[in-house]
Amino acid sequence: MKEKKKKHKSMLKWFIASIFLIFMVRAFFFSNYVVEGHSMNPTLEQGNFLMVNKMVYAFSKPERFDIVVFSHPEEKFNYVKRVIGLPGDQLEYIKDQLYVNGEPVLEPFIASDQLKVFGGNFTGDFSLEELTGKEKVPKGHVFVIGDNRLNSLDSRHFGYVSMEDIVGKVHVRYWPFDEINTTFK
């Protein structure tokens, strides 16, 4: 009987320790985010639930086309957008073609039928210098744009995003269940 009680106490301790560990990992490494708005359509839609890895950029830097959640220093809520420009990049869009440092770069997440529907000027022509007065993305910053270019408040409007303001990288869309996804490129 004593041995059975010891076993139950031991299992209870392990259970409590496991729950504590799960909450700690959740608090420090991951965050949930609910998509609000249509700026990332069709990749992410309003009401999608996302899991954001908060620690990924503690050990690495954002990569082009990562989807990130960040807090805007002047706003009281978070945004979710796609990283288009990295520090040192010179960016330009001409006729819906992205050029990075003078070289054309494909954006596989923008479907060709989206471009056709909107008449070939889905993103709008611009250069960084025209928008921001700077020729290149500054050190410690990224340039972000929503996938729904015609309906996105992003770096074209509010400028660069400091890497310090990035909450984390979107790793999983877990709601709705039939649209679970871990690949967003």
Structure description:
The protein has 185 residues and is of the alpha+beta class. The mean pLDDT is 85. It has a single domain, classed as Umud Fragment, subunit A (Ribbon). The chain is built from five helices and eleven strands.
What key phrases describe this protein's structure?
signal peptidase activity, Umud Fragment, subunit A, LexA/Signal_pep-like_sf, seven-stranded antiparallel sheet, alpha+beta, membrane, Signal peptidase I, four-stranded antiparallel sheet, 185 residues, single chain
Topology:
Blueprint: H1 2-29, E1 30-34, E2 49-53, H2 56-59, E3 67-71, E4 78-85, E5 91-94, E6 97-100, E7 103-105, H3 112-117, E8 126-127, H4 128-132, E9 141-145, H5 155-158, E10 161-162, E11 166-175
Antiparallel strand pairs: 1-2, 2-11, 3-4, 3-11, 4-9, 5-6, 5-8, 6-7, 9-10
Summarize the structure.
The protein has five helices and eleven strands. The protein has 185 residues and is of the alpha+beta class. It has a seven-stranded antiparallel beta sheet with strand order 1-2-11-3-4-9-10. Strands 7-6-5-8 form a four-stranded antiparallel beta sheet.
